[in-house]
Each structure stands twice: as C-alpha cells, then as structure tokens.
Amino acid sequence: MFGYGYSQTALSNKTIESQVEKYKNDIRGPYKSIRWFCDDGTIRQPKDPCPDSVGGVQHATYKEDVEVLAKNNHVFLGQILSYTDKNDFWDESKNHSRLKQYQLGKYLARIDDGWVNQKGQFYRGAIQIEDEEAWGIKFYKWLLSKDNVLEKKYYLVLQSLKDIPHKGDDDVSQLMRVQSKVISDQYPKFMDLRVKIHSNPESTDIEKTIQFKKENSTKLVGDISKKIDELILTMQKFHKPINLKSLNKKINSLSTSGTLTNTLKIFVKNNTDNEISATLTAESAKMFFTIRKEIVSEKNASQRLLLLDIANELESFIYKQATLWTATTVGEQLDKIKALAMASAGNGSIELWEWQKIEALLVLEKQDQLSISELTKKLEIARGVVEWSSAMVKSEYHDVVQTYTSFEPKAYSFIDDRIRSSIALQLGKSVGELGSFIAKESSLNNKVLTITNQSTIRGLNPGYAFGELIVHSGSPEEVEVTGDKIYVFERAPSDLKPVAGIATVAEGNLVSHVQLLARNLGIPNAALSNENLEELKAFQGKKVFYAVSNKGTVIIKEESMMSADEKALFAKKVRKEDKIEVPVQDIRLDQKNIVNLRAVNAKDSGKLCGPKAANLGQLKEMFPDNVVEGFVIPFGIFREHMNQTMPNQNISYWQFLTTMFIETDNKREQGMAENEIEKFQLEQLETLRAAIKIMPLKPKFVTEIVNSFTSVFGKPIGSVPVFLRSDTNMEDLKDFTGAGLNLTIFNTLEKDKIIQGIKDVWASPYTERSFKWRQKYLLNPENVFPSILVIPTVDVDCSGVLITKGISSGNEQDLTIAFSRGAGGAVDGQAAESYLIKENGDYELISPAREAYHNTLPATGGTGKKIATFEKAILNANNIDQIKTLASEIRKTLAKKTTSNYKGAYDVELGFKENKLWLFQIRPFVENKKALGSEYLESITPKINTKKEIALSTPL
C-alpha cells in the first residue's frame, strides 16, 4: 500500500507520461497481483482467503514503479481505497491532494475508457466495489465527526461524495457529460450536440441525439453507435421527472427528530405535488442552503453523511428545475438569480459569510420598478457569485490538475467539468440573459468579434491597442510576451512585461502591480469568462483592434473591420514628447553613508533616496507606532560602487552603462532596426547585471551595515530577518508609477545573504522587464539610481493595498482595498478580498479571496507556504475601521506635511498582525490621463441614463 512521505527525487513528466501509456496497454494496468489482506496482518494468495474468524479483503497490489511514483512525486495512480489509511487519504498537509487525485483519476477513467486501467479494468479481483463502499462509509464517519471539516472544507467534502463509493449509485449528470465528450472526441460531427449537452442540457436533447444517430448511421464506425445508445439511456435517466418523495427514504433513515430533520420533512410534504419549476427551484434552494447552514448542529457523523447525500440530490434537483424555469420578466429573472445564488452558498462554492454580505442586495423589496443603476448593481453582484463559485473550483483543484496536465493533457478539462456540473452553470446563464437585457436598455453593448454571451465581458482599464491576438489557456508564466501583441490569459502573469493589451479570466484584483501598471500606461485590460476565452481561440494569431471605453465596454474587431478613425490611431508612432524625463538635477550623490529611516521624509524623494524610503520616513513621522524602524542605503553609495572597475572591461561599471547608451544613439542614427537595437541593449545589460551581482562591496560600507543592525534594530546582523526593498528615482513620478518593476528581497536573515541581496537589488533595474517598461515611458532610462530600504520583517496575518479612491465607482471620496492572507499576495495579483468603502462609511464586498496558499515569513528567514481556507473573512470590522481612519488622516495631513500641491489619490501598502495595522509604503496613485481623456475612447463610451426606470414586469 501507499505509505510514503514526499521525496525530492521527483520523476520527470516525460517519465510519468510513458508510465501512464504503459499501464494503459497492460492487462493489469498499474497493479501487480491479487492478494488477500487479512485483518490479523497476514497476506494470502488469491485462492487462499482469510478465515471467516479473522476476516479481510481481497484486492490488487501496486506495481513497484507505481509505488516509486507515489514516493517520489506524491502522484497516486489507480488508488484502491479498501486498504488506504484514512489520514493518508485525507492528506491534510498536502491540501488533500490524494483525495483530489482520486476524483481526478475517476474523471480520467470516465472520459478515457478506464485511463491507466484501459485493459486493467477487466483484471478480475483487483478492486472489490463492496469493499470500496464499506471503506467509504468508514472514511466519512471518521471525517464527518470533525466540525472543523464541515466548517472549512464543505465544498470539497460535498464534491468528494460524488466520487468516493459509499452508497452504491453514481452521478448521472457527470456520466452524461463524459459520454457525450467521448463520442465527440471519436466523431467530431457530434461536437455541436456535445456543447449543447454540456452548456444547457434539456430534455429535447434526447430527440436531437436520436435524430443525429439516424442521420449519421452509415458513418458511425466501431462502437460509436453503441455509445450513442448508452448516452441516450443516461439522458433519459437524467431528464426523468424527479419526485421529491424519493428523498423520503433517506429522510426517514435519519434517526433524530431534530429541527433540520423536521424542516426536511415539511419541505418534502409541501412540495411533493408541486409542478411549478420556479417555486420548486426557490424552495429547494432554501432547503439546500439550510442543510449547509445547520448541518454542524447535527452531531452524529452517520446522520451528517445522510444529510450530505440528501444535499447532493437536492443540488441535482435544483439544476434540473432551473433548466425548466423560463423567466419571462425582469423581476422573475432576478428571483431566479437570487435562488440560484443561494444554492451556490448551499453547495459551498461561496462561503456563508460571503452570502451574508450580498443576500440583502439581491432581494427584491416590494417595488415594481428599478433604475438602470439599481439593476446594474444587482447584475454586478450576481456576476460576482458566478465568478466566486468558479474560482472556488479552481482554488480547490488547480494544483492537482496542473500536476496531472503536465503528463496527461486530458486532465485539463476536469475543472471545467466540475463548474458545468454545478449550479454555477445555470446561474451564469441567467446572469448572462439579464446582462444582455440591461446592455440593450442602456446601449452598453460589447462588440467582441463574433463570440457569444458578450455580457460576461467587462473592461477594467480604458485604452486601445492594435496587434496580433494571442489566446492562452494554460499557465501564463510559460508565455514569452512581446510589446506588440494582445494577450488573453486565464490569469495575468506575476511578472508581466509590456504588452499592447491584455484580458484575463481571473481578474486578480484591481490594485495588483500588474493592474496598476496597465492602468498607468493606458493598456486596455478586461475580464471575461472561460467560455469567452475558449471562443476567442478561433481568432488566435489574427491582427485585431482592441479598445476598452471609459465605462468598461469592450470592442475587439479584425483589422479588416477597422474604421478610418481607428486606423488613424496607429498611423504614426507616439511622439517622443509623450514620454517623461526622470529629474536628476537635484539628486544628491554626495551622501555616502547609511541613513536612519527616521532622518528622511518626503522631501528627500528622488534626491537622497527613492520614494519608498522617503515616504515611509514621512509615515514614520506621522504614524510612529504603525511603521517599523529601518535604514536607507542612499543613491550615493550605489554610485560610489559603480565607479569601481568592472571585471574584464578596463572601465568602470558606470562608464560601461553610459557607453551603452552612447552606442545605442549611434546605432539609431545609422538606421539600425529598433528590434536589433533592443537586442544589443539587453545583451549589454545582461553583462552589466551579472557583473554587479559579483561586485565587491567596500569594507567601510559593510562595517556600516553591520553597525546599523545594532543601532537601528537593537540586534546584531544575522538575528533579525529583514526586507531589502529596491527604491529607485524612476518610481512614483507624476505620470509613471513603476510599481513592482524592481527587486525586493523577502525576509532574509544571514549576513552573507543580506550582502548578496544588496548587490542583487542594485542589479535589478537592469533586468529585461524593468528596462522595457522604462524604455516605453521614460526619456532618460539610463539615469536610474537605486537606493535600498532595509526594514525588519513583520510576519503579518494579512496584507494588502489601500487606494484612497473608488476605482470601480470612480468616486474620489470612496476607498478601494484589497487584502490577501499572509504577506504580499494582493500586490502580486492574487485573487484578493476586495471592498469598496463608500463615502458614507458603508462598505461592500467586491470579491472574496480564493488563493489556496499564502506566504508566511518565518523568523528563520525565507518564505513559507500555508494552506488557506475561506470560511472567515480576512478583514474584520475593526480592521476596516482602522483603514478608514488611516485614509482620512492621509487625505487631511499628508499633502500639508510634505508641502505638496498633490491632490490625487494615494496607493498605500499595509498589513495587520494580531489586528495591529502596519504601514509599509505610500505612493501617488497614477492613472493614465491620456487614456481616460482620449477623444476616441470618449466617442465609444455610451451615454447611459442611469436613472431610467425599468418595470419589473418588463419582458426579457
């Protein structure tokens, strides 16, 4: 049996792929032999069963290389449950990887004729289903005895019950989708019907499938005809009218007569003879949600298991009734959306606290009409529920799917299958219909090529672009982006280089470094659905025009469809005057000693050091208890070290850099192509960066660093972990943020690593990504000077960003905040918990966090990873009150304290440790005024009468 810890000698994906293929063609699959495993610990031959007085189970043993794969890669193929240790299977330290792999393995077996058991599935005695079911019951009784499992992992537990044998039946909807996929894979003409069955299954699909078989009977080779017959039988079972009386058997099996049991009995009694799909959907959603909310009050694990099985049957019932509920008016559609949103809370794909934040906003009061503005607000909330639900599926299964996809590409579709089998599919359809209605009433239509359901697309940053369309559904980190193309990703890369335009399924959050850079540079940026992304693949490689208006409408059209005005936008290059110049006239390179953070303030920005240190010094002055101690390595120390002779060059580091720019100008005057010039620059910068990383530090400077730890932090170097934050003079300029372009060394402890970290930070402005962003926007990118801010680590419980403006609302008096668990997640683009805090002090949830892991900062240095759960909000009311107070103080006093005439919004990085607020950075919030004020963007921005009233009786 599998009983191994994780090993570092992992097998390659190619090796695993070849093993999988070998097992597919092996009559025993991943198994070695059949044995009896007796309860007294003895193992017997297949024809020598355990004595009745001892008892035991018969099943296969694993091949040796299957066990090696488990040990070395934590990858488990062909799992047999009946002799798996329940703790190992729950696999808590690996975020329940083994359980999820079991589910994924079952899925692969369904869509690929047994997968690793294509031939091994006929290996008699390998798996005994009655033993698997008995194990499943024992497993769930053990698991469901723990309250925290239901509180923290309700969604996963409910999903697992669909795959782990414990009651002798299967999930018909899953089987129907799998069978239709297998047929379309073998006979592509079936694809249209497959898409229909996957996207919007209806009973009329049965007749369409029967007719398809008749029309194509002469072309159906092999066993395709038989598989279509099997699909028809499954569809008939799926669409068979459900009688709620079927739940009575399970309800009557509940041994308690508690409140929940009585509520279930009343629900069935009141709805058994009801045939109105709208009422059945709404009432079933309430019951489904009630089970989720109240199940912890039932303390018996066996009863909990029965209740969860009832819950899964209810979800299937709601799914089918929703397909029958055709909302005909706006009011009825809103009722349907609310019911399905509640059902999403019922199945755990949104958390109970998240539902509490939005429930009242979805309720229809006793009103007979709503304004366009009010309708749009309800649409945004409902769209959010769809996105949060899909994000829950991805959060739970992404790691396992990513691991398997690297050696078995068929695994990639697992997440989509889970989403489509859930309430999210029906909710998404209803939200899309409402979105289309509102778009029509407000003249707010997207025009994105010829794809369907465009109401799910929304612009995030205004701007326009022209370039080749690249659509990528895998990991974005593996894509080499270029500045002249438009990219559609599932999520934005963590280190995005300049691009012409971007759209993502996973929005991340509005205040990540990537989003701020896109906003800053006027790069069009939009969010879209998985379905939108898949449809856009048909236009891969085509030249397109892409624009996002100031109100978030999106246009994508092929080059041949561009208007004369749109072509004129790209008729000439952006004039050099559009770029800005980094001011260096006041820079102080004479300061060659380390400076205490307390001795700098905003006036030193761009002169002695960069804005991070200068502004943090200012915050230390204003909020002394909320800012750590620290010290600054000013520009002058960097410049002094750059005067040293560069290895193998016979000139100084600084001369090497300035010579490169002189040569660049010469090459440009000689007519060299810009791509060749860029190649030359990047090669030279690579040489410079490598040399800086091994640059000797002056002994006097090293001594000063050591002394500063004692004098500033009160502890010797090597005993207090610190952050080394790059802080250049090119950041936070009037029209350029530079957010996240240069290196931060996280939580480093040892002296040698700190010394090396200083050199690495000095080298970071010369990376390809940093240099390309500067080249795009700055007139004098050669005049970059890095200082370094050194501050002690705060191992925060959560961290995030505050923008003293409502980004989504546009109101200058609102606030936008985004927080992730642990350190650094929000600024790195994670799906953070985001709020809009309104001018009147009320706040609303924009999105919850959906990251499976978060960073920790241990006292030993480095970073750790901790598994996240979502049953509680990251921020509590006290945290939000502290943020509101901080924002008010910043608005009132920061400009006055710094004698600045700046009147815009601020971008603040902060965190909480045991509910104490810590400030880490403040900078101006820079938006692209050119994009916001573009005549073209204004021309495509519809004028919406937000006060227009819509009667709820209006037909859809």
UniProtKB/TrEMBL annotation:
Taxon lineage: Bacteria, Pseudomonadati, Bacteroidota, Flavobacteriia, Flavobacteriales
SUPFAM superfamilies noted in UniProt: Glutathione synthetase ATP-binding domain-like
GO molecular function: ATP binding; kinase activity
Highest taxon of the lineage: Bacteria
Protein name: Pyruvate phosphate dikinase AMP/ATP-binding domain-containing protein
Positions of the Pyruvate phosphate dikinase AMP/ATP-binding domain: 608-931
Species per Swiss-Prot/TrEMBL record: Aquimarina muelleri
